[in-house]
Design brief:
By secondary structure, the protein is an alpha+beta fold. It has 6 helices and 3 strands, in the order H-H-E-E-H-H-E-H-H. The protein is flat, with a radius of gyration of 25 Å.
Amino acid sequence: MARTNSSSSAPTQRMLRVGEQVRAAITQVLQRDEIRDPLIEKTVIAISEVRMSNDLRIATAYVTPLGQQDHDALVAALNRNARAIRKHITPALRQMKFMPEVRFRDDTSFDNYQKIDELLRSPEVARDLNRTDDDNGDDNGDDNHPSDKGTSN
């Protein structure tokens, strides 16, 4: 019986391993300035993750331009140059049966982390956390606490 992966299933170890290899290859190409595009050349680009399709033929790279506000322009430039990037990563991935098509997407996870961090640092949350700490404090009225070993009654 053939094993099938549904689209909602978690990535396999192979998908994760290949995704990391593709991420490393793209990072090297971008660091060596092998892509001749003014926007790509002048921007430091962080690739947080590459997700592979089930058949390993499509690689979706999640990118964040560091120090640049217009993420959409950079993502568009990377997608315009996706064929050239694919050509340059081929030597690093020659063990693969098929060279994946590379697609670039804006990584918004950093924005989400920042929003969560701001919420956690807000005065309202800090007040609620302090109230919870006070409610769960050591003053529970229990005189027979396990840490009271060795004391005389």
